[in-house]
Amino acid sequence: MPEQTTEQTMAASGERKALLEVDHVTLRFGGLTALDDVSFEIREGEILGLIGPNGAGKTTCFNVMTGVYRPTSGQVRFDGNPLSRMKKHKITKLGLARTFQNIRLFKSMTVLENVLVGTDAHSKVGFWDALLRTPRHRRTEAASQERAKELLHLVGITARHDELAANLSYGDQRRLEIARAMGTGPKLLCLDEPAAGFNPAEKVKLMELIRKVRDAGYTVLLIEHDMRLVMGVTDRIVVLEFGRKIAEGVPAEIRDNPAVIAAYLGVDEDAS
Ligand SMILES: Nc1ncnc2c1ncn2[C@@H]1O[C@H](COP(=O)(O)OP(=O)(O)OP(=O)(O)O)[C@@H](O)[C@H]1O
C-alpha cells in the first residue's frame, strides 16, 4: 500500500468519529491546578501525540484519559461513555488499554503468558468451564494462544514465546508490554513514554511498530519526550503547558508554532 501523506491521513481522520473526548477537564491536586479546562479528542484510526515540557500535565492528563484519576470538573468520554465512576476492568472491556512508563510485566511468567493475561480480559468462558477444562474452554484457550502469537509476531518478538519475560532485553520487554496491552483487544492503545531508555536505532524501530499498530486498525495515544519520534510518527499533536492546552495540530504546524517553541525553550513569547 502506498504511504499516506499527513494531509491525506488528516483528510481521512477529519471525517472519522471521536473515539475519546476530553471535554473541559480540570483537575486540581489541592491548590495546584494540574489540568485547566483542557479539551481535545482522539479520532478513530489516528496516532495522537500528547506533549509538553516537564510538569505540563501530560501524565495527569493520561491518567484522567485512562480512568485512573477523576476530573475535578469536565468529563472524559470513551466511545460515547463517560469514564468517571467506571471500574478499571469495565474501561478495559470497553476497549481502552495502556502501557506504563515503568515496565510492568509479570517477569516470572513467559512471554506468551504475559500476552495471554491480556487476552483473558475478553474471555467469555466461565469459572467452571476453566476448572473442568470443557471443550468450550479448550477452544477459547487455543484461540487466545493464536491471537497472542499473532500479537507477538506484530511487535517482532515471535521467536521467544517460551522465554521468561525477565530474560528479554529491555527493548523487547517494552515491545512485550505493547503486545500485552493489545491482547485486551483495545480500540485505543495508550502508550506512556514507550521510547524511554531507547537508543536511536531502537527508536526508529519503535516508530515503525507504532505505524504498524495503527495500520492494523488501532487508534494510538502517544506521550513521548523524544520530539523527533513524536514529529515523525503522529498524525496530530496536542501540546500542554502548565496544565493548559496551548496548541493542537499536525506535526508541521506544531513545529512552527511560536507558543510551542517558547514553551520548550522556556522564553517569554512576547520577548521572542
Ligand atoms: N498525585 C499528585 N499530587 C500532587 N501533585 C501532582 C500529582 N501528580 C502530578 N502533580 C503535579 O501536577 C503537575 C503536572 O504533573 P504531570 O506529572 O502530569 O506532568 P508531566 O507533563 O507528565 O511531567 P513530566 O514530563 O515531568 O513527566 C506537576 O506540577 C506535578 O507536580
Automatic annotation (TrEMBL):
InterPro entries: AAA+_ATPase, ABC_AA/LPS_Transport, ABC_transporter-like_ATP-bd, ABC_transporter-like_CS, BCA_ABC_TP_C, P-loop_NTPase. Keywords: ATP-binding, Nucleotide-binding, Transport. GO terms for cellular component: plasma membrane. Signal peptide: none annotated. The keyword Ion transport does not apply. GO terms for biological process: D-alanine transmembrane transport; L-alanine transport; L-isoleucine import across plasma membrane; L-valine import across plasma membrane. Residues 20-267 form the ABC transporter domain. Pfam families: ABC_tran, BCA_ABC_TP_C. GO terms for molecular function: ATP binding; ATP hydrolysis activity; L-isoleucine transmembrane transporter activity; L-phenylalanine transmembrane transporter activity; L-valine transmembrane transporter activity. This is Branched-chain amino acid transport system ATP-binding protein. It comes from Nocardioides kongjuensis.
